[in-house]
Amino acid sequence: MRIAFIVNQFPPNITAGLGRYVDLITPYLARGHELAVHTLNDGHQPVDERVGGIDVHRPRTRLLGAIGRGRRLNRTRRSEFLLLALNVVASNWRYFLRLRRQERPDLVAVHDSTNFLSGLLCHYVLRLPVIFHVHTTEYGVAPQRSITDPLNLFARLERWLARISRRVVVATPEVRDQLVAAGWRRTPIDVVPLGGTFEPVLADPGFDRDALRAGAAALRRGLGLSERDRVLLFVGRIERQKGVYQLLEAMREAAAAVPGLHLVIVGEGDEVGVRRIVASTGLRGRVLTSGGFVQGRELLEYYELADACVFPSLFEPFGLVATEAMALGRATILGDGFSRIFLGPDPARPVVRFVRASEPADIARGVIEVMSNARLRRGLAERGERFVQESLSWERAATETIEVYRSAVKP
């Protein structure tokens, strides 16, 4: 098949879970298929190149090119999200022009509703089969949304794009159920769970766990943490949907109950709000931040540094951070916004500790229980690591995705 991928992130432009998804699944999709990725250009990347058997097209637009040369846009800030959205729309027009000129693909895979323009143009003008991948519902479907949209414009655009698509692809049954409840009933919705973020890294024969431990020890010293301090790690955007404010409220009780407990927050977003809450709750010195987005080797070192990880999200379309923590053998606490697939094959022996994300008291209970019980941490870590290794695979995710694509282009 000739597949056109329209997506906002592609290496080296990785700023969130979507970028990790694209980075990890596209090599498998390109096996035996012609894959062309149409994606954003931050002003530093070539317009056309071939990467690992994948044709990559990054049209330059003056808006993001001018801004990107100075700094990366932070999508958690409303004004910068708007600038990014405008650039996405402008780039979508250029993707369409490119697709109109080149050899017709068999289908176009549109990732997330911000790329609605390409999807609609490919359907109505080019008469191409469209597959709509929904990686987040935070714009037009989720009860608590990350943008202000009083006219429900995003919700209407998403439903429109879903109606004209041959298939809709989501990562969990919970997302499918949420879309059906929102009225997305006309187009078949296929559930394709993802793989684990660190799958290629950990499978590499050259991976050196001792070197990673040494890097984590240096990071610990750099953060001013002693060997006796216990580290609870949060990774993600610093915003309401991720449950970070409830977590900070929970830390007052948890820090009082667990000697030497420190919360380390890795991500970008509302750093000012975090500092304000920390100051008002007396947690100064017990909450540390990375100061921005972290990826690659440094992110691995943060996970290695942790005694346990906590991601109290109010809702997650999948939650690759959970797979990251479990893959590195870290006991993991999840908000009830995560999919129940993370309970594992035996709910009586769960692979994670679930908490009610909207209740700081319940988050505190989960943190205290896990951080105070070494045997429980070991059990969660071992079961979580085994679950990721045995149940989550990017090769399996790619195979199932290709099957969805084949069903969409059948006459």
In a few lines, what is going on in this structure?
By secondary structure, this protein is α/β, with parallel strands linked by helices. It is built from 15 helices and 14 strands.
Q: What structural keywords apply?
A:
Rossmann fold; alpha/beta; 15 helices; 15% strand; 411 residues; 8-stranded mixed β-sheet
Explain this structure to me?
There is one protein chain. This protein is of the alpha/beta class. Helices cover 44% and strands 15% of the residues. The chain has helices at 17-29, 62-68, 78-101, 116-124, 153-164, 173-181, 199-203, 209-222, 244-257, 271-280, 296-305, 320-327, 360-371, 374-391, 394-409, and strands spanning 2-6, 34-38, 48-51, 54-57, 107-111, 130-133, 167-170, 189-191, 230-235, 261-266, 287-289, 308-311, 331-335, 353-355. Helix 5 links the parallel strand 6 (130-133) and strand 7. It is globular and about 65 Å long.
User: Rounded to an integer, what's the Rg over CA atoms?
Assistant: 21 Å
- Structural class, from helix and strand content? alpha/beta
User: Considering DSSP H and I runs of 4 or more, what fraction of the residues is helical?
Assistant: 40-55%
Query: How many helix segments?
Result: 15
Main sheet, how many strands, which sense, barrel?
8 strands, mixed
Order of helices and strands: EHEEEHHEHEHEHEHHEHEHEHEHEEHHH
Tertiary shape:
globular
Topology:
Elements: E1 2-6, H1 17-29, E2 34-38, E3 48-51, E4 54-57, H2 62-68, H3 78-101, E5 107-111, H4 116-124, E6 130-133, H5 153-164, E7 167-170, H6 173-181, E8 189-191, H7 199-203, H8 209-222, E9 230-235, H9 244-257, E10 261-266, H10 271-280, E11 287-289, H11 296-305, E12 308-311, H12 320-327, E13 331-335, E14 353-355, H13 360-371, H14 374-391, H15 394-409
Parallel strand pairs: 1-2, 1-5, 2-4, 5-6, 6-7, 7-8, 9-10, 9-12, 10-11, 12-13, 13-14
Antiparallel strand pairs: 3-4
Helix pairs in contact: 1-15, 3-4, 4-5, 8-11, 9-13, 12-14
